[in-house]
Each structure stands twice: as C-alpha cells, then as structure tokens.
C-alpha cells in the first residue's frame, strides 16, 4: 500500500471513490445527491488544499482518502460550502434533497421545543485543522485508514499545528472507535444533525479533537 498526496490526474478516480466509499455507514450520504455532496466534502480540498489531500493506493487503484485542512479559518466553512452547493446544484428542485431539508426544518423545530442544540460549524483556535476521511469497503481493516491518518498527523506535527478537530456521528461507532485509537478525544455535546437519518433514526454530531 502506498500513501501519497493528491495529483490533478487523480481527480476522476477520486470522485468515483467518493461515491462508493462509506457505503453502508451512517455517513454514506446526507441528502442523496452525490455531486453536490462532493462539492461540500471533497472538491474544495482538491482545489484549495491539495497538499493536505492524502490518498491510499493499492495496485495502482485508489482505496481511500483523507481530505485535510491545516487552518479552518482560511477555508470556507461547511455552512458556506453547503449554501453554495444548494444554489449551484439547484437542490431545492430535487426530490431527495428537498425531503432532507424538510426533515431538517422539522428537526430544528423539534430541538428548539426541547431546548436542545443542533449541529453546526466548529471554531476553536486550539484545534484549527480539520479532516474528512473515507476508505472503500474492500480496504477496511487493511491499514489504509491508519496510514492516511498517520501521514496527516505527522504533517501537522511537522508544521507546528496546535491541534486538529473532526466531526463524525455518535451513531457511527466504528468511526468513533477508530478516531479514539488514533488519539482523538470526544469534545463537547452531541447535538442533533437536522434532517439526517440512518435506519429511520435521528443522528447526532460527535466532535473529536487531537493535540500533538
């Protein structure tokens, strides 16, 4: 297995990997429109932080990736990226995204009635870096995820970063165990993720942090 940084020639294969990686997990899809989800969680990293986009390669094929950002303050927020994707992909005219956003409105109202928090952006100078990681089903348990994460954390140590955060789902217990094993600790509450469902159940955001 080889771990290396992204090259422009990887673009098409990486987009295909984004489509299938995470299949079957609670984080596989949010609103069911792959192109717009890639516009939020993959393409900005290809364009803005390609040196922090790591790929796991086996026999010449991509099997996993880690999209990292060393300084979130210099990167469009998730809310900004999502708003742009909604406009550019005209998601309000697509059935599955509209159903997601309708559920989200109901969930926000439900949480407000119960005085419960809802998921949002994370901003703390103690942990300015952030990441998204995905590994194809066939590469799970092969060390691909470990290799990607170690390369990313080594990069942060080399550059003197004070720390890194990530956001996953409480219900994605496999991911939470992996991040814990890699040195991340749970941080803050676990608010509701408006609109998100897995097996018909509401989902909750889990923020985790790492310091060198």
Strand and helix layout:
Layout: E1 2-5, H1 11-20, H2 34-41, H3 43-48, E2 53-58, E3 61-69, H4 78-88, H5 95-113, E4 129-135, H6 144-159, E5 164-169, H7 173-181, E6 185-186, E7 192-198, E8 201-210
Parallel strand pairs: 4-5
Antiparallel strand pairs: 1-2, 2-3, 3-4, 5-8, 6-8, 7-8
Commentary on this structure:
37% of the residues lie in helices and 24% in strands. It has 212 residues and is an alpha+beta fold. Helix 2 packs antiparallel against helix 4.
Task: Describe the structure in brief.
With 212 residues, the chain is α+β, with helices and mostly antiparallel strands.
Tertiary shape:
globular
Give start-end ranges of low-pLDDT stretches: none
Q: Which structural category fits the helices and strands? A: alpha+beta
Order of helices and strands: EHHHEEHHEHEHEEE
Write a concise keyword list for the protein shown above.
212 residues; eight-stranded mixed β-sheet; alpha+beta; 8 strands; globular; single chain
